[in-house]
Amino acid sequence: MASLPIITCSQFSSSRPKTLLSKPSSRPRQLLQVRCNAQNDKNTPHLDRRNLLLGMAGGLYGSTNLDSPALATPISAPDLAKCTLATLPNGQTIPESCCPPLPDKIIDYKLPTVKTMRVRPAAHLVTQDYIDKYNKAIELMKGYPDDDPRSFKQQANVHCAYCNLAYPQTGDSDIKLQIHFSWLFFPWHRWYLYFYERILGNLIGDPTFGLPFWNWDHPDGMFMPDMFDKEGTPAYDEFRNQAHRPGAGACTSTVDLRYNGKDHPKRPLRRTISRNLQEMYGEMVKHSRRLYDFYGAKYVTGTPTNVPGAGTVERGSHTALHMWVGDPRQPNGEDMGNFYSAGRDPIFFSHHANIDRLWSVYRDLRAKRGRPRQFKDREWLDADFVFYDENAQLVRVRVADALENEAMGYKFQKVDNPWLSYREERVRDQKKKPRKAANNVRSLLRKKVSDEAVIFPVKLDKIVQVLVDRPKKSRSKVEKEKEEELLVIEGIEVDTSKFVRFEVYVNDEDDKPDEEADKAEYAGCYSQVPHKSSGEVMKTKIRLGLSEVMEDLDADDDDQILVTLVPQAGGDEVTIGGIKIIYDDVDED
């Protein structure tokens, strides 16, 4: 990663290079009528089925088992006839139903033979010809009758129904289905975008049409793409944060991947970009050496809706962008700021197209290191969902068929991932700066511990600091390659109807860590998009990789670390059950 130039807000330019990706076409397809009545993995068999607090933490505090059963039935596609009114975060039902039209039949989907690869372009690099084609496709989709499953309204409702408790789990009708906060997050959204993209391409008669991805993890794409900000066009949505639109000022219109609901107009642009790259490196590399930490927690039939845990990207940059785009003038942050309404904004699909790209990048990074790229569990591979395809046919799809994007007929325009070299650049820069002697820091940290230890569970309505024992120290490179040192913050109880974010720091020398800086002490975060859970609170945990953090802080020989939890949004709605350090084999998922 080349060194970032020092840029002031007034020097920011909105002009970007353009590339032509496909020829425009506007030929619509004939509308198909739908009556509203009540491929197997080649390598594995298919399961046949239908203020400030200080304290000491020496180990386990209020341990809660948040794992699903070892052997269980995979999540199965919901029965659309059992769809009910979805719920708002306050528990009230959404005025309009999110339920889809009922099908004549359901068929098992078989991926078609790939004849021509679709190319998904970076939204900030597309030409006007591409923008015209995209807007035409969205216009035609919005022109479908509302009860057509391919209409823009119905496509938006797919996210509402699956994500706001409109469906019961198949096999356990007492529990609602939720495809966020678990290992279903990436494959479900991949299938969702797959059919949305095919519907658009079919409408304009272009089988090569690819969705644009919002390349917000690259400095050149860290702003709302111009193609979504032209008022009066089909891609525009009025329910967005007006302070974040292009032209509102570089210091507020630049994406903040650690967004906490507040803007920082005086923060230097260079620092925002550096913080963003730090966040992406943490989500994609530092904190995701184990599959569960990236993909999310196991989720099977019978798993309560309010139990699983989100992976690094979902609870990090994914949530930040939802909240950054959502309109604070609306009661629930509509459109992007709430699950039920997010699909109403066309930018949602480009946001998730980038998340889909990041999944492919992660898999490639794992392959280069000789690590498994996905789970082998049949409970994951055989999970299935239903979507309407471009012919208005309801089809059943499986996770196992969504692992390779090119096998699904699409790839992404090649772009650099500058966050990959973030650590190398960051460590090199830090070596140029004087730091306090390690022994002095350790001595200071121990003096900070008060006589009144934190008693867990503790409410996160103020900064919480606690010393945590490290069962192992001074580990060799071989040991670190085999086992990841993980900081586990568990027994997290949170009100799901609120936007919540807190950050975690390790061995920070300040009572109040500087959230403006891209500090080496920053270890990660928890955040969530507001939604309605089947319970009053969601019970979850997060795991943060420590191996690199300890190396970068020259603290590998320490027998304790100081963990600082900094509430940034909704902290009074969060309770922490305990903090501990564990060691997990990086290949045992």
UniProtKB/TrEMBL annotation:
Molecular function in Gene Ontology: metal ion binding; oxidoreductase activity
Cofactor(s) needed by this chain: Cu(2+)
Protein name as catalogued: Tyrosinase copper-binding domain-containing protein
SUPFAM superfamilies xrefs: Di-copper centre-containing domain
Similarity annotation: Belongs to the tyrosinase family.
Domain Tyrosinase copper-binding positions: 180-197, 345-356
Coiled-coil region: none
Keywords carried by this UniProt record: Copper, Disulfide bond, Metal-binding, Oxidoreductase, Thioether bond
Domain of life of the native organism: Eukaryota
